[in-house]
Amino acid sequence: MDNKEISQAVIARLPRYFRYLGELRDEGIERISSQELSDIMKVTASQIRQDFNNFGGFGQQGYGYKVEYLYEEIGKILGLDKLHHLIIVGAGNLGQALANYMNFERRGFLFKGMFDSNPALYGKKIRDMQVRPMEEMEAFVRENEIDIAVLTIPKAGAVSVAEKLVQNGIRGIWNFAHVDLNVPPGIQVENVHLSDSLMKLTYNINRFEQET
């Protein structure tokens, strides 16, 4: 694959392709055309072909795509052909819900530890993880080769926690805190604002009501 810049819009569609192709594979479908995939995903066939051409194409003219092969190749592009070790910083309701979501493990995301500043939570078991004090976080990250941290803490403490994580070798942060993080180049941050998603939903509800 060339080292050309891939647009964020294309990258945002890759997990959807991966999910739909996984479902097709599980149904025993071996081959699919861009038009058939378009009908399922509600993305134009030309857009699908353009997206895949960013990574070499994957298909053959008049033949379509091999579902298993395409599923595996997109998985590699998404980095799902290797294991990722994660910690959760913040053992509140959201942190516990993420820890209990089994589908992460099926994708190679392994939660190895959970940390919180509330002494009342120390020692509590969330699945097979024990909530640990924040003071143990930095050493744990170094000693267990943690590459991704999930922040589910209030924004007041998120910046300082992120700085400590970066200093101790974290490569990516999945940030649920309502604050933008300034991190060095090479550290990847994915911000998740749940209220933003909900407001997009209400916008579309309002727009539909105004048009009908």
Describe this structure in words.
The mean pLDDT is 92. This protein has 212 residues and is of the alpha/beta class. 24% of the residues are buried. It has helices spanning 8-26, 34-41, 45-53, 67-77, 93-99, 103-106, 137-143, 155-167, 194-211, and strands spanning 31-32, 65-66, 84-89, 109-116, 125-126, 129-133, 148-151, 172-175, 188-191. The protein contains 9 helices and 9 strands. Helix 1 crosses helix 4 (67-77) and helix 2 (34-41) packs across helix 3 (45-53). A 7-stranded mixed sheet has the order 5-6-4-3-7-8-9, sandwiched between helices. The chain is globular, with a radius of gyration of 20 Å. It folds into 2 domains: 8-77, Winged helix-like DNA-binding domain superfamily/Winged helix DNA-binding domain (Arc Repressor Mutant, subunit A, Orthogonal Bundle), CATH 1.10.10; 84-195, Rossmann fold (3-Layer(aba) Sandwich), CATH 3.40.50. The longest helix is centred in the first third of the chain and has 19 residues, at 8-26. The chain is 45% helix and 17% strand.
